[in-house]
Amino acid sequence: MSHNTQKKIAAINDISGFGKCSMTVTLPIVSYLKVQCNPVPTSIFSNHTAYPSFFFDDYTDRMVPYMQEWKKLGLKFDGIMSGYLGSKEQIQMVKTFIDEFRTDQTIVLIDPVMGDNGKTYSIYTEEMCEAMKGLVHYADILTPNLTEACILTDTPYKEEQWKMKELVAMAESLAGKGPDKVVITGIRQGDFIANLVYEKGKEYRILRTHKVGTGRSGTGDIFASIVAADAVNGVDFGRSVKKASSFIKKCIKRSIELDIPRADGVCFEELLHTLKIN
Hints:
Elements: E1 8-18, H1 23-32, E2 36-47, E3 56-58, H2 60-73, E4 79-82, H3 88-101, E5 107-110, E6 115-116, E7 119-120, H4 126-136, E8 141-142, H5 146-153, H6 164-176, E9 181-189, E10 192-199, E11 205-210, H7 219-232, H8 237-257
Parallel strand pairs: 1-2, 1-4, 4-5, 5-8, 8-9
Antiparallel strand pairs: 2-3, 6-7, 9-10, 10-11
Helix pairs in contact: 1-7, 2-3, 3-4, 5-6, 7-8
């Protein structure tokens, strides 16, 4: 009997018990989109690091034996996705996982969670940034925000006033490192937030939506989860990006209505039923 009759995504990310982000976002969203979600935990947090204090347990040294058990089961994956990685060693673990489990049919999505608002996260050393640049080579789909796209292409960051040719040049540079599809998210354009959608062999697209509220934890994880599940389900890339952006906007609006703290993320659970499967 095969374990591989249902569509599956291996999700490599941390687990935060509170504060909607990483695996606690990916599991329900990928599952709702009718794809089995199989977690590969990189670390355990009581709550994510935007809170004043947190419990943390690193799982780096458990990841190899974890993978080995999956090899014994003969598991195959339609998708592999990675999110927040806390060390150079964990980035290498993702490469190892992809080498071990990727087939010709597997779609790999890399969400290079490195920073925001023009700055890298505090743990990201120059060495880790270089390691992440190497991981880009493994991606079929890459979903950096504007800050991360700048880091990965050694492009100076600026808040706004990006020329389209500059954004396209970054997307082309990233695609040249490996991925067929790139979306640069979170591009501020006045009252709008834009995403640049780039696919090799196609015209680039800019998809814009009206800006609502302020940034919230976990929205990038929601975005990547929808795009990954849609890719496995054969949904058009641009359509998937538009769907993810629209869903996040609705979630932010509802979270503001409920007066949910920014660090707590968005109340996607209340709106999950509105997420179209195809």
